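INFO worker-7 received task bundle
INFO bundle size: 2
INFO processing item 0
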Amino acid sequence: MRASWFCMLSLFSVLVFSVSRAVSDSSAEELFLDCLSNHADPSNPISTSIYTPNNSSFLHVLESYKRNKRFMTAETPKPLVIVAASHVSHIQAAVVCSKYHGLEMRIRSGGHDYEGLSYVSTVPFIILDMLNLRSIVIDEASETAWVEAGATLGELYYAIANKSKILAFPAGVCPTLGTGGHFSGGGYGNLMRKYGLSVDNIIDAEIINANGTVLNRESMGEDLFWAIRGGGGASFGVILQWRIKLVPVPETVTYFKVERTLEEGVTDIAYQWIQVADKLPEELFIRAQPRVGQIDDKKTVTVSFIGLFLGLAEDLIPVMNRSIPDLRLRLKDCKEMSWIETALAFAGFPEGTPLDVLLNRTTGVSYFKYKSDYVREPISKAGLEMIWKEMMELGTMLMQWNPYGKRMSEIPESAVPFPHRAGIIFKIQYIYFWKEDGKEARDTGMGMVRRMHDFMTPYVTKTPREAFLNYRDLDIGNTVNGNKDASVYGMKYFMGNFQRLVKAKSMADPDNFFKSEQSIPPHLPF
């Protein structure tokens, strides 16, 4: 039945997609709803999956998976309709009807897009919400799993842990991230120095294209399969599910988090970290996290060193003493635990928190602006001192420095669209939060993180200044005024892989139905 229904939808799309429609928002909504009713699979009614502004639950559904209060204001554009699909036919109908009626589609799995592109548009649009499609099927024998795009990382990790104590998956440390967007943008976490990114461990996928057809790896072809693993799936179709390869981990691993201040010699420690961050054993991941704090009413910089070691603490200490001796890591600083318990620790949960907290799909919301950078050349001690000074002038700046090297350096830049591989010492995430409402607070907050980003120019990559797609940043270019900026953000995110992504887009979606302010265009801009 599924296959025959897909064929009928594909035939319908061929017959109608050449027709152009221009209608008002209100009539567009009505016509779109009629289209959904007429083209959804009758055996899986779509009516209970539809939310319009007239529905009492509309705002709750809309706001539940927004993470950034910048996009929760009265002025933020709202969708005409939310389709919270609970069956594949609902997605197909939403695609076919959106395209027919000239509506833009935004696809949301976890709602963590930093610039809100999964749920905001400036033109008439609908939201396809994947939250109800979050099945996870683990095959322990083959060490693989099928994961639907609406599942969160927390749900995936919980499911893996329920099956095995010695299997894991390399992905992020935030449990509410949706796998649809996280994986398709690359997906990195604290196992990447051993196993690479999430996309380096994806072996199959199902995607729904602009004709409403479901494709797997074989039927989509290797060019499209390559593109959706790091090129942003929402530029090419609707990711339905991923088949992932699970990876082995020891039954007992070691976690630590220690903090040092300027007064405790953190400049020397951070300098040592920079010298070895990408050279440490592949079993060891240490994030350095500088932030501004206070000691006795005096500003200081505190750096948290947060580590995961795929082994026992007694084996970790000699490595740390040789590599970062000034940190003076001791056995009492280390906690031996299971891999799944480190998922809780990295997410900031207190020791002893029940594992089922990973199933919580909600998280706090705040105003924020993030940016990213990559570092290929070591930063000197003098440079670090200048960075600390600038941070303290800004006040509440936070950065995360994530180490690369080992497996990340072994995988070719062209293996998947994500190109930031050999030669990268660490990646920077700039983080700035604010609490106050209003334009003045927003302008101040945005200005702060932009100032820090500008200040870091001498210390990071150049021509292009590399950036990470999953740390979405519209400052580096957007398509609001056409595709002229596409090559700019395309080169920063994808470097030499951008042209191949454009070619894949031209084959998979030549009419550019799947688009956003930073999507892949179907042709190179002039």
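INFO item 0 finished
INFO processing item 1
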Amino acid sequence: MDYALCEATQHNMEGLTRAVTFYDINCQYNKHLQVWVDRSLFLEMVLELTIIPGIGLWHVHGHQDSCYVQYASNFIEGIGRIDGEIMETLWARLNLISPAARGMSSPHRKECLDYQMNDSNFCKMIHMKRTLCRKFKQAKNGIAESEKAFQRLDEAAPANSKTEWLASERIAQLSRINNPAAMDVYEINIKKAPSKKEIELRLLEEGNAQNAAPARRSVATWISMGLAIEEAQIALLIEVQSIGRRSTETQRLDIARQHDHLQGQIDGFTQSALMHLGEGFDADDDPNDLNLDILDDLDDDPADFSETSDTWTNSPELTVIPLPSNLGVDRCRRCMAEDLIPLEMSLREGQANDALHNLRIHLCNKVILFRTMVRQAKLQALKTRAWSQVTSVQQAVSLHASIYTKTRKQMMQLELGQDQLQTYKPLLREQLKISTAVGDPNARVDLGGSDHSWNEEFYRVHWLQAKSLRDRWKEELLVVELEMDWTCNFFLRKAAQWIERMGESSANRLRGHACYSGRQSRMYWHRMHRQLFKI
């Protein structure tokens, strides 16, 4: 790969100072490319050539989210609208001969592939006019649509904000070679709250750094397991409640298996509690009643579920697990486990952050489903399918809303601070309602509240990405027009070459050669150049 790239940059590159390369893993490959070239005795790169790395649009969506704005062709200046998938489009033409090539010997297969690719190249050349005409029309339509969308955003944007956004875009484009992270201006830059996994990792690293006792070294993981068990209990409670009394054998079997799995997790967690909570804890003691705490988070009447739960012989989803928040602050102090309270508080904050983040994701998915499927469905079958997906998303919203409410109640048991009370407020039903207007990238919507940072940030990202799309379409039109001129010049030169060969063949009385040369000249002149010249 290194050798091929170095040789390609030295072939017919006189006077060029800028090149764009597309590679599936360019985000990693390009980081140390120059170092590898400098260390090698056989590789050489043109010093004046600046290489801009890119990733094809088909592959970039399988990378991290940050790779999209840093390496996607949509944000590279000067290349127009291309997908960056070069080899894949050529391989598609080989599918025609793949069945026949399987049984061939290696030399025969190589010869067949060479013939197929040469034929593919010739077909692309003779159909160049059709391709360029299609690309020209697409560029015209793309400019009109992207310009219209951008103007709607630009008219409503404050002048001072636009000046700041343009400056940040210019700095990002100039800095992208040495610092690809500068392209993050095209993405939302609001800092995300730490997740439960991040907090658990930090607590484990701090415990190892302080050489904590074995009983305290893995306490963060133990508490995290307890939080996961509580989430599983809430999910199972909601599922049991949705099934009701009239359940099928398959549903009852599935619930019984979940009961068995959950009970095993609770037994293991309770046995571990003896080591972490000390001798003052008795596993047979009953902490606070968890039944009503969880059921209060659900939408339906707890009495309805109490009647339903009587049909199940084992209900581990109602079992109270010995977490510090369930034991209470006073009892933790008596058990000499007071140091577990700040650990659970930190993990609870991460759990609440995860629940809120999942709520935002599922509410956005619900908006998209309404805009793209429910409202667009004309047939009853399509409407049924769309509403089924909406129902599935709504169940996820209810689950994470219940998890957040339960988490906040447990945090209150741990003596929540005033700053935390301001951060983790009660979740209201009105906050779970959606407006499909926020799914319109060209609509400026007031998200409510005194803090409009989310609104301004989303609007900035839409403005920058809409401008980038408009610029790429303008570049595409310019490139297509130049390609038309280059193609016309190429056809003229090829026609002139074959006319010259026809004259030489006629002078040497080679009539067959002269007829073939005349036919080739006619193909380039009449079939291609004239039709392109009319465009």
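INFO item 1 finished
INFO post-check item 1: Confidence is low (pLDDT under 50) at residues 286-311, 444-451.
INFO post-check item 1: DSSP finds 23 helices and two strands in the chain.
INFO worker-7 idle
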